[in-house]
């Protein structure tokens, strides 16, 4: 009987089954202004660009565009790759370039326009990636297309699309024509609001180029020159390295000091800098264990390099992929350590990590403007297959509700204090693996109210009743407020939990799908309440389960 009760407790994560942790007290200080809350979370990306204009892709884009009043930026691979637009995992194509029998260029903007139209008509902005190499321009065109599947070693995807150009003048002219076409189609003002970038993780070129850095720098010089000739006011940058390491540092030095391969002048134009940062989850005794420490170290390494160049003070920095690990298309059937993606662990990790990225950037004095969550959706895949995505078969996953919460945060970031043991520096040093979970908050104020994003996070994927939390919000300039409390946990804003309660159907019925859609929406914890303000403060008390996320919205 005891074993049956324990099994039921583990399944339901009932508060009655677990001892209560020590209470946690947090103070939100509305008078402690930390400057504008930059919407650096409003950036998303994915490998497969042709999903953009498919049924579930268009639905998800509309959801992302509606998150907040700020423009959402979107980054996609394979915008220049040869092919007919047929998608596959880690693959996509637009067929924008080919040549006739005499080697004369043929430009075809149909599919790339279809992709960018999907963004622009929703008020979204492309982080326009110049990549990858069209077959007719690849120095090693065959084999061209890869047929990667989860579990396949990464080097096997390095086929003809991944190689440098065989003719730099033709390649630069293609880029020039693409930018000029974009200006003609969308208008100069619109295209000036985009970011243009070259390639993705060029430090992976070591598999195909003996002098990887110089090869990339040459490509960058020609690409940047082409972009600027087509639109001098365009924003161009890079290098989107896999890490903020030596390659990233050497790229900056090249842009500042080296001879330009395309123009012969000193240096190359760079309007923003970009690199990637990932964590590395593992399985420990059958339990997923995240590595926020590794993720933060990769972020901080890149920020430190940017900060070491005083002449680049204030330059925009984009973390072009910032995720718990590195393979969105690797589901949990081949990578069981990725099982965190369906449930609330992905949500609490996202809330806790994005909040600390403000602090990491502030500590280095770097202008971090964008943090790309490399998650979108995969068409026609099994339900909740454990891909790193925001929706499955058109149904939003719990993590998307974190971005809905962030989208309601406007105004200036304010101070948060309390008796929690974790901050950005301590996580950077040792992760979140102690006995105490990470209970903390990100808060903001505007002229009409205040918002507080709270989480109860731990690197180990264990769900329990969590802790009682008392949040004192100080400095409220009103006599009363209306409080709305939103929640992501096992009972709220959680389509995955609803799917499991249905018995995890491989083919849900129409009625079940409708219920999954309902359960995927951001849900409130009770009804809105009117609270009286005493001494310019209110106190909000709650029980916050482990791996849950709460959002308090005060209107006054």
UniProtKB/TrEMBL annotation:
Regarding protein family, the annotation reads: Belongs to the glycosyl hydrolase 39 family.
Q: Which Pfam families match?
A: Glyco_hydro_39 (PF01229)
Q: Where is the signal peptide?
A: 1-21
One annotated GO molecular function is: xylan 1,4-beta-xylosidase activity
Full protein name: Xylan 1,4-beta-xylosidase
Keyword check for tRNA processing: no
**All residue ranges annotated as the Glycosyl hydrolases family 39 N-terminal catalytic domain in the record:** 27-519
Under Enzyme Commission nomenclature, its number is: 3.2.1.37
* Signal is among the record's keywords: yes
Ordered alphabetically, the record's keywords are: Glycosidase, Hydrolase, Signal
């Amino acid at each position: 009987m005891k074993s049956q009760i324990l099994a039921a407790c583990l399944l339901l994560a009932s508060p009655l089954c677990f001892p209560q942790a020590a209470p946690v007290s947090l103070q939100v200080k509305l008078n402690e202004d930390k400057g504008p809350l930059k919407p650096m979370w409003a950036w998303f990306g994915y490998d497969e660009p042709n999903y953009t204009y498919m049924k579930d892709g268009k639905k998800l884009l509309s959801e992302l565009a509606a998150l907040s009043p700020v423009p959402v930026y979107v980054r996609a691979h394979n915008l220049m790759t040869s092919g007919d637009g047929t998608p596959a995992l880690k693959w996509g194509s637009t067929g924008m370039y080919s040549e006739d029998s005499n080697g004369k260029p043929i430009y075809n903007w149909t599919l790339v326009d279809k992709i960018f139209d999907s963004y622009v008509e929703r008020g979204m902005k492309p982080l326009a990636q110049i990549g990858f190499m069209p077959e007719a321009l690849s120095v090693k065109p065959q084999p061209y297309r890869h047929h990667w599947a989860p579990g396949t070693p990464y080097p096997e995807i390095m086929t003809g699309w991944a190689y440098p150009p065989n003719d730099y003048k033709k390649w630069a002219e293609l880029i020039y024509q693409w930018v000029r076409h974009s200006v003609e189609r969308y208008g100069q003002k619109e295209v000036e609001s985009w970011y243009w970038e070259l390639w993705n993780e060029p430090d992976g070129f070591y598999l195909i180029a003996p002098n990887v850095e110089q090869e990339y720098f040459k490509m960058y010089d020609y690409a940047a020159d082409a972009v600027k000739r087509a639109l001098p006011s365009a924003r161009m940058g890079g290098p989107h390295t896999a890490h903020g390491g030596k390659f990233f540092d050497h790229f900056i030095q090249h842009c500042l000091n080296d001879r330009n391969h395309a123009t012969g002048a000193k240096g190359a134009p760079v309007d923003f800098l970009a690199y990637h940062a990932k964590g590395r989850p593992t399985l420990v005794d059958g339990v997923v264990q995240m590595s926020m420490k590794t993720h933060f170290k990769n972020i901080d390494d890149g920020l430190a390099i940017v900060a070491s160049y005083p002449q680049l003070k204030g330059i925009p920095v984009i973390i072009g992929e910032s995720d718990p690990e590195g393979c969105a298309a690797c589901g949990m059937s081949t990578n069981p350590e990725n099982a965190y993606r369906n449930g609330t662990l992905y949500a609490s990790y996202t809330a806790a990590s994005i909040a600390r990225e403000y602090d990491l950037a502030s500590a280095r004095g770097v202008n971090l403007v964008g943090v790309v969550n490399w998650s979108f959706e995969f068409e026609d895949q099994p339900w909740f297959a454990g891909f790193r995505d925001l929706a499955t078969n058109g149904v939003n996953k719990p993590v998307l509700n974190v971005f809905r919460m962030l989208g309601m945060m406007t105004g200036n970031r304010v101070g948060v204090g309390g008796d929690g043991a974790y901050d950005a520096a301590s996580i950077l040093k040792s992760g979140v693996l102690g006995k105490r979970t990470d209970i903390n908050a990100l808060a903001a104020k505007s002229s009409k109210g205040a918002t507080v994003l709270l989480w109860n996070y731990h690197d180990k994927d264990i769900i329990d009743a969590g802790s009682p939390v008392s949040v004192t919000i100080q400095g409220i300039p009103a006599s009363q407020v209306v409080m709305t409390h939103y929640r992501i946990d096992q009972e709220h804003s959680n389509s995955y939990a609803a799917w499991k309660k249905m018995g995890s159907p491989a083919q849900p019925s129409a009625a079940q799908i409708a219920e999954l859609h309902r359960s995927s929406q951001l849900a409130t914890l009770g009804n809105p309440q009117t609270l009286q303000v005493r001494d310019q403060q209110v106190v909000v008390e709650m029980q916050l389960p482990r791996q849950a996320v709460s959002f308090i919205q005060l209107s006054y």
